[in-house]
Design goal:
The complex is a heterodimer. By secondary structure, chain A is mostly helical. Helix content of chain A is about 80%, strand content about 0%. Chain A has one domain: MetI-like (MetI-like fold, Orthogonal Bundle), CATH 1.10.3720.10. Chain B has 2 domains: about 260 residues, P-loop containing nucleotide triphosphate hydrolases (Rossmann fold), CATH 3.40.50.300; about 100 residues, 2-Layer Sandwich (Alpha-Beta Plaits). Classes of the chains: A mainly alpha, B alpha/beta.
Chain lengths: ~220, ~375
Amino acid sequence: MSPDMIYNLLSKALMQTLQMVFVAGIVGSIIGLPIGVFLATSGKGELFPAPKTNRVLGLVVNAARSTPFIILVVAIVPLTRLLTGTSIGTWAAIVPLTIATIPFFARLVESAIREIDKGLIEAARAMGATPFQIVFKVLLPEARPSILMALTMTIVSLIGYSAMVGAVGGGGLGDLGIRYGYQRFNPEMMVMVVIVLIVLVQLVQSAGDGLARRFDKRNRKN
Amino acid sequence: MTLQHQAQQDAAQGASGGHSGREPEGAAGAIPMVAFEGAGKRYGPSGEGGFTAVEKVDLTVARGAITGIIGRSGAGKSTLIRMVNGLETATSGKVLVDGVDVGGLSEEGLRGLRRQVGMIFQHFNLLSSRTAFDNVALPLEIAGVDRQTIRAKVGPLLDLVGLGDKAGNYPSELSGGQKQRVGIARALATDPKLLLSDEATSALDPETTQSILELLKRINAELGLTVLLITHEMEVVKTIASHVAVIDAGHIVEAGRTFDVYTNPQHQTTRTLLASALKLPEWLRSGIKAQPSSGDRALVRLVFFGETAFKPLTGQLVAELGSDVNILAGAIEEIGGEPFGSLVVSYSADPDVIARADRFYAETGLKTEVLGYVA
């Protein structure tokens, strides 16, 4: 296989991976964030007390998280077809990736918010803050570094998940590695795919760490 | 026991002193800033399995004064102070703030009340993601105040607490005392009429504690702000509170002017709290027993103030008891500008000696308190 071919295949697969990871990452986090906030604030005696809804939502989130991703991909084909008009291809792969992201990110957001000192919530209540003001002025800003770390972790996991969606013709780097590197015995291609993935994960992790550190004012010393 | 009478006096003094922003003399002056009327708080089910944190508390907090509620941890003082701004709701009785029943307020009404009641906390509760400036601005943002007004307001507040140069610093860059100063500035941002202090100095070293108490005292004097504080340290009450209430197992067991309670404690809990503030040497304190056995010595605290402060009573006591008097500790202290002296002495716990001493105290009017008995 010529270097040109390898390059073309790689860049096409990289673009597909980026497309899947970022669309699923953004849509999944946008939906997962409020769910995570709700999970963290709807227990008994909390800001938005709704213990029953909280329990049901927790069960749904756990169920979604314990379903193996490859089974989720196949199981939600009807939904995928409804949303994208097809059940194969990169856009079709984005649907299960997004569905998997939502509960994953929601749980991480929940724990990020639960980590916040309850005293801050009490202080805000004592100032006369509404529950929504507490969420937007206290909880989210205070949890921002942890939420950025959670987002990084989510994107890194998504890169891993996206390798599996070759099963529905989603394309991407994982698919390329399996079809060319493994099934056609092309070790160069396999090595290249792995290198690109390592670099990609490294970049995402560094960017996430950097952002989280910038917003983390908890351990500053003069 | 009630502080009501004193509240009226203070209000009258305050009004004639001409503090700006005060209600006119008369009607408003008669209403205490805070009144607990048979207030109680019970957690969980009634009967078995529940827990009563506060029970049947009747207490009024004088307008413009600094009132301390002192008690051991678990005595119910945290619950009590949280009933004032509705962070805890009374399950029986009423809590009135400036004449308004806190329990009768809607959520919206409660938020309005909380904007008039500032609160500071033991662990400061500052937002780590906001600078000192933005922390002080938070209650104003919550109240919907515009940016320009916020800017005009926060600077002077930081100056007031002595942190004018720390506006851009994050809490993690500040010391404990500085953090509490930010907390105080934050509590003052919405121009409250009442400041609640929840063990505000308990996480600070003694020196920083003094400087924070000085600041609270100054704010009380300059802004005419009523302060209600809870603490487990007698030292805090003694330093700044003009009135004190002692809470034990959810009940107020003693209340009155700090000077009176300090110099003439009535309840056992008060005495215990006071004894820990006496700074007796450890070897002595650890050996104190409640009942004497033969050959023991009585440990007695003599309190001198007013008239008794100027009489040579110690010498007379020594003469009376036949020189069998040991002086163990002593201090001259001051509460609200009134000086008084304490002397801890010991003498034989023999019934005859005790009787002679008691007769001497009765004749001279010397205030005393038996701390216990030592071998």
